[in-house]
């Protein structure tokens, strides 16, 4: 098998080659020549637009003649069935997203094809001893990928500001930057395990950039691996393909093992983890290295030998079998819930069958379908189609308040996506990809990349600056316009402007979580003996005066600003020890890590001896029952035995919906967004009763702010022009601070003094 195409017809043997013939013979076709000679030479680009296809543009073997199967085919030649396979994969992705609300496995096929093409290109360079030109590859690949991706990010950002609720804007800004720098998968992975993340059941319109991010990371990593292989090959005179097979085979085994393990233990994180996806790329690399050897054995002979005829028929059957497995994967397997563990072998090995089957030369093989003109055209625009279909789907669903599309609505969305993808390919992708002017100087390609990134970053920065400026403008008159819970007092006089905006700004509301100034330090710093979870200790204040320690879960965290505001005003130091989902208790249902955390908290409190410890005295179960926090009385008694006072707070109500989300969807007014406190939330707090300790310096206090959060057991979106709720279980830091007056009054009534 050779990488070189046959000389074009029409040149007499022995005559000098023209410049164009020399380019074809050496596989050095100038940028822009693909389309220029396509009609009369049959030469076509090895790869076209698709999330994985930038790799194909770096090879010297960018073109090869298509002669109805009379040429030997392989990874070094143009493979029209690969282009058709891309088209099938993108159609699966789009259709499964739009009509079935499922993941198809098509993205995994993209990953494999991208590595297959990239590896074939670099392996041939190593075998010829040609320079790898890695920087040139990076420039060429990202010059192609970044501009269309940046344009879609920019368009999605603009449309989202018009369509999405403001509470999702800040996350969208983060998604925009992460997608631009090929880090969206890690951002989504962190959100999947972040207890404090907002509810992301409604997907980001840029979520699909997770796979492009992994590909971008691999496009950067893989050439470095080839550089490493080149050093080893030249230093130790190793065989090229054997060395590469060892390298990528090892990556496949290690990454696959990690993928199986992480998918079984933390599937949500594994889905976006680059390390658990590397084997999908390295499997494509192994296929690219093994396939030429396989072709030599089974033969891609185009002769009248009966064995060759039988071989073609067998390969044609294998191609159809692979295509059937690909098409059935997303329907049979819960891809999103099971990938990328061992079950991902299904679509990947099926794609390997289709690729290995290759061009069969039969009239009925799967390659005949994959090489058809409609699928080739869809393959040409597959990158752009992947980019545009997801944000178009998400924004359409949000705009019409729908959870899905019917057949005709979906068909219209597909048609619109195809039209936009064609326009993006025709007017952005192709002009940049085929521009000889951009290819002539490396800095021009770099300028395209930098300019594309700069435009998106400038847009994101402008939106963020605008949001911050709007928040500062509202906060400037907050004392008059945003009283919050102070508006519930009997002597409150309303002097607010009639058109005053609520606080916090809706765009900032999802991030309105309470946090203190910095880590605990000095005498308040955790001792190494306190335990392995000392990183959660935070401090605000100099630590030289009296100290209050607030401990518990995220709901305690959001109740904390009321007390912290009072303590800081009186010169106290505030120490916080929060852990999401971990109530300070001795409940039997606590997870092992939560038990370890609470043991650490108790040891820390007894060692540092704060003046006051604050935590939840009641707890609300998932079925809304309010009970005394398990073990609270015993924990409080232990702390009080050491001369430390304890404040037990009543748990904030849990709701069965978010009042703010209800208000913001645009179809409800404030009155219809009121949520009644659940009937299982007791009329009177079920306070635990710590036994007296005999220590006069240590007292037990209680605080019940439920009426200031949900007056008359009605939970509304805002009180006193301040948004009360972040979600259905947590109040905002801004509103919590306005509760300090009511809390101070309750403490004073029980004899507590700050002096």
Which terms would index this structure?
two-stranded antiparallel sheet, Rossmann fold, seven-stranded mixed beta sheet, acyltransferase activity, 28 helices, 2 domains, SGNH, membrane, disordered N terminus, 755 residues, alpha/beta, elongated
Would you write up a description of this structure?
This protein is an alpha/beta fold. The chain folds into two domains: 34-459, no CATH class; 509-749, 3-Layer(aba) Sandwich (Rossmann fold). It is built from 28 helices and 15 strands. A seven-stranded mixed sheet has the order 3-4-6-5-7-10-12, sandwiched between helices. A two-stranded antiparallel sheet has the order 1-2.
Furnish the topology, listing elements before pairings.
Layout: H1 19-25, H2 33-36, H3 38-41, E1 43-45, E2 63-65, H4 80-100, H5 106-128, H6 134-163, H7 169-180, H8 184-193, H9 209-236, H10 240-270, H11 278-298, H12 306-332, H13 335-338, H14 345-357, H15 366-370, H16 373-380, H17 382-399, H18 407-433, H19 436-440, H20 442-475, H21 478-481, E3 518-519, E4 537-540, E5 547-552, H22 554-569, E6 573-578, H23 592-608, E7 612-616, E8 618-620, E9 626-628, H24 632-640, E10 645-649, H25 659-664, E11 675-676, E12 700-703, H26 706-709, E13 714-715, E14 718-719, E15 722-723, H27 733-737, H28 740-749
Parallel strand pairs: 5-6, 5-7, 7-10, 10-12
Antiparallel strand pairs: 1-2, 3-4, 4-6, 8-9, 11-13, 14-15
């Amino acid at each position: 098998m050779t990488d070189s195409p046959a000389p074009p017809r029409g040149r007499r043997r022995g005559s000098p080659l023209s410049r164009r013939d020399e380019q074809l013979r050496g596989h050095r076709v100038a940028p822009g020549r693909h389309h220029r000679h396509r009609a009369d030479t049959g030469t076509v680009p090895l790869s076209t637009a698709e999330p994985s296809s930038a790799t194909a543009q770096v090879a010297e073997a960018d073109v090869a003649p298509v002669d109805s199967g009379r040429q030997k085919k392989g990874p070094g030649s143009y493979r029209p069935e690969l282009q058709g396979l891309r088209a099938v994969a993108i159609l699966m992705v789009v259709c499964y997203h739009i009509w079935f609300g499922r993941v198809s496995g098509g993205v995994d096929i993209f990953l494999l094809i991208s590595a297959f093409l990239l590896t074939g290109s670099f392996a041939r360079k190593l075998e010829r001893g040609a320079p790898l030109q890695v920087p040139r590859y990076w420039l060429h690949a990202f010059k192609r990928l970044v501009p269309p991706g940046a344009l879609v990010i920019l368009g999605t950002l603009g449309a989202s500001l018009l369509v999405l609720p403001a509470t999702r804007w800040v996350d969208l800004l983060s998604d925009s930057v992460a997608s631009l720098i090929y880090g969206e998968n890690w951002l989504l992975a962190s959100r999947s395990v972040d207890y404090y993340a907002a509810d992301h059941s409604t997907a980001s319109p840029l979520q699909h950039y997770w796979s492009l991010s992994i590909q971008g990371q691999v496009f950067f990593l893989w050439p470095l691996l080839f550089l490493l292989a080149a050093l080893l090959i030249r230093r130790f005179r190793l065989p090229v393909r054997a060395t590469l097979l060892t390298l990528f085979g090892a990556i496949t085994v290690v990454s696959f093992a990690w993928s199986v393990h992480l998918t079984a233990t933390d599937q949500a994180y594994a889905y976006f983890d680059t390390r658990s996806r590397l084997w999908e790329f390295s499997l494509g690399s192994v296929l690219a290295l093994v396939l030429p050897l396989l072709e030599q054995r089974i033969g891609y002979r185009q002769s009248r030998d009966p064995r060759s005829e039988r071989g073609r028929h067998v390969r044609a059957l294998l191609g159809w079998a692979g295509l059937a497995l690909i098409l059935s994967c997303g329907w049979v397997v819960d891809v999103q819930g099971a990938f990328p563990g061992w079950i991902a072998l299904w679509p990947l090995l099926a794609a390997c069958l289709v690729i290995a089957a290759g061009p069969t030369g039969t009239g009925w093989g799967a390659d005949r379908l994959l090489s058809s003109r409609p699928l080739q055209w869809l393959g040409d625009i597959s990158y752009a189609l992947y980019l545009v279909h997801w944000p178009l789907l998400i924004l359409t669903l949000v705009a019409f308040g729908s959870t899905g599309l019917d057949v005709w609505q979906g068909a219209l969305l597909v048609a619109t996506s195809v039209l936009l993808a064609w326009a993006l390919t025709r007017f952005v992708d192709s002009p940049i990809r085929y521009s000889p002017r951009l290819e002539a100087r490396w800095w021009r390609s770099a300028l395209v990349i930098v300019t594309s990134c700069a435009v998106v970053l400038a847009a994101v920065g402008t939106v963020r600056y605008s949001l911050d400026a709007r928040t500062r403008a509202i906060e400037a008159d907050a004392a008059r316009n945003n009283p919050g819970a102070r508006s519930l007092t009997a002597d409150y006089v309303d002097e607010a402007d009639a058109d005053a905006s609520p606080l916090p700004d809706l765009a900032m509301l999802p991030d309105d979580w309470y946090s203190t100034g910095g880590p605990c330090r000095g005498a308040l710093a955790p001792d190494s003996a306190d335990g392995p979870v000392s990183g959660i200790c935070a401090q605000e204040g100099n630590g030289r005066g009296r100290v209050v320690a607030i401990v518990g879960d995220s709901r305690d965290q959001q109740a904390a600003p009321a007390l912290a505001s009072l303590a800081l005003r009186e010169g106290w130091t505030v120490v916080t020890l929060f852990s999401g989902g971990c109530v300070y208790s001795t409940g039997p249902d606590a997870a092992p890590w939560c038990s370890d955390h609470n043991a650490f908290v108790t040891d820390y409190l007894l060692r540092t001896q704060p003046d006051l410890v604050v935590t939840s005295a009641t707890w609300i179960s998932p079925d809304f029952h309010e009970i005394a926090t398990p073990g609270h009385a015993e924990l409080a008694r232990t702390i009080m035995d050491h001369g430390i006072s304890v404040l037990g707070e009543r748990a904030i109500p849990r709701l069965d919906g978010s009042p703010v989300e209800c208000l913001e969807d645009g179809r409800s007014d404030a009155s219809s967004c009121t949520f009644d406190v659940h009937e299982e939330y007791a009329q009177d707090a079920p306070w635990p009763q710590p036994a007296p300790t005999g220590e006069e310096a240590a007292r037990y206090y209680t605080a019940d702010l439920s009426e200031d959060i949900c007056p008359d057991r009605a939970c509304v979106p805002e009180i006193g022009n301040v948004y009360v709720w972040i979600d259905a279980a947590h109040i905002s830091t801004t509103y919590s601070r306005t509760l300090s007056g009511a809390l101070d009054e309750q403490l004073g009534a029980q004899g507590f003094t700050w002096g």
